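Tokens help. Our protein:
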Amino acid sequence: MKKLCLLVFLLAACNHSKKVNTSFYYWKTVYQNTAIQTNYLKHCQVHKLYVRMMDVDFAKDNLPAPVSPVVFKDRFPDSIGIVPVVFIVNDILRKMDTTQIKALANNIIPYVDARIKQSGKKDYQELQIDCDWTATTRDNYFSLLKQIEKVTHQKHRSLSVTLRLHQLKNQKSSGIPPVDRVMLMCYNMGNLRKYGSQNSILELSELKKYLNGNLSNYPMPPDIGLPLFSWAVAFRNQQYIGISKKLNLNLLTNKNQFKFIGNNLYKATIDLPEYGLLNGDEVRWESVSENNLNQTAQYISSFIKTNSLNVTYFHLDNDLINTYTYADLEKTSALFR
């Protein structure tokens, strides 16, 4: 009888799985609801989108102000919840006093509420603040969060923040933000400006340097952000000169303009002023493969102790839909269960 009870217990443990919700970031200044995107979200069983509302940076009068706020060209779908995201430029926190912090907190909520109404939604359940805070701005940032949290909790909303990998690793200096939940951004972990064939967006060997016990011991339930973007990193004489937003892989494989020199590196064979390149400049194409995503998900999942989490992909656009099928992403999300 004891053996039978033990077997039943073990089978129940094996069948236990986490509840994993798939969601996306929408990081554009104009929201448009295309039929293709709607169908994609439906197949991925997405119930909410994290939508960037605005950046907060210094204006001409040297006071914090909204920058590039989102414009809702189309009505937001009734079937999908919206999580407004406000990106705060870290530098503005260095120069703010207590009065200015309180004023900023009091201004953010009404501004976001107005944008939500423009989207056609009546309300929202969660507000997310995105900021790459450091040890020197931590106190001001956390003070701002506490002010915002007072309002969100009064309105029965939760408050979450994004968490960079360096903030996870350096918990003593970065601190633990006073919020309900964190979204760990598992990308942009390498040295973008360093010449070579590395992938600065997502590389498992780099990720392992940050996670280990830092995630399993983090005193707050984490959600996970994963990358679905790519970019072209340009170098001149092996010195970083920038990211070329106009370049894509199809252009780089054009043998009339570029020569493949190994790994993920391409060399311009002619001057290409429309892309800011000269003959001889090198471009590193960085992207995230399905295999890379799955290996990352499998590694991270071993550190997740909560029974429920959001796996949020950055970010939703047509290039994503053309690159990753909903079956691909379901496979990745399933690895967290």
Summary: The longest helix spans residues 98-119. Residues 1-15 have pLDDT under 50 and may be disordered.
